[in-house]
Amino acid sequence: MSSAAFPPPSAPPANMFGTVPGYEGMAAAAGGGGYLPPPMPLQPVAPPQPSPEPEDWSIPSLSEDDARDAFKDYASSHCCYNKGPASDGVITKMEPHDTYRYRLETYTESRSTEWATKPHEGEPADFYTQTAPRPWEVPATAPNLFTNHTEEIRVPYTSSVKDCNSCHSTGTMPCDECHGDGSKVCWVCNGSGKRDEKSCTQCDASGKERCDKCDSRGTKECETCKGKRQLLTYIQLKVEWTNNVEDHVVRQDSGLEADDLRSVTGKELFKNNQYLLYPLLGFPNPAISEASEKMVREHQSKYAQNARILQQRQTVELIPITKVKYKWKSDSHKYYVYGNERTVDCDKYPATCCCVIQ
Predict the structure, then answer these.
(1) CB 167 within 8 A of CB 180
(2) Dist. CA 155–CA 139, nearest whole Å
(3) Which ranges of 101-244 would DSSP assign to H, the alpha helix?
(4) Which of 20, 38, 91 is nearest to 62 (CA)?
């Protein structure tokens, strides 16, 4: 069977996707309707309320024993580190450089639409049997707050059955291995029928061998309709719940990079959440108040454009940082202990084997 017997797949016909009230901007060639702004609330939105005053601004301290134990654990976790500096080093000075991290989370729901198809498996064609709900009218169950989740929903009363344009409603396509011939060039003789001046035993001197991929049929199941010959076309609604998180870490002069602090937690000093937040004012460190005011304003402006804000949450953590100076074999060295996890950062450990590059 020749591949010429199969007409090439055609583009979706112009009438494959209908016109649905409320979805007029969804031309199939345009790739869908894109993200849709949420409707205006029926009731006026209450203004954000001031946050309650935090009760405890106390700063945790790190003892010498804790600093030494953290350094020992750090050295033990590196196979090429000699334990001497961590076990025998003498701490000479401990400098606290605590810093604050302000985190703002804005939890949103966004909706987008596009035309979609699937193999028709007996689903009813309900196109125009009733008025289709508008995108923001389609019921969707949100997950727990501040949890990312995506759900795809077939919009009711937008489904119709169409012939598959890829296989012209035959349910089959030419095999891409043998191009519809049912056989392919013999891999031993490369189609010559001979090998070493003798007849090729692999293909019985025919130069061709059976196509195993299609079992010599020359066809395979249509990938678009999965052999069903027809497609269900419908509007697909994509609902995305997204937790948009932004952090601000107050600069500190310990010498430890702010990026190092991303993997650790601190002491939670304050947390509150509301539908819309009021900036955190009156914080002892003015940099936190300034960051809160700026970020709250930007989030509420940015994410309300194409999404619905469901909830906001702001958190303030105090991240403990201790710069530890110590002596070992008459030389001075330093390391950092930071976060609730008591993570250690030591750029130049003084006793390593040759396999460690400092």
Answers:
(1) no
(2) 10
(3) none
(4) 91
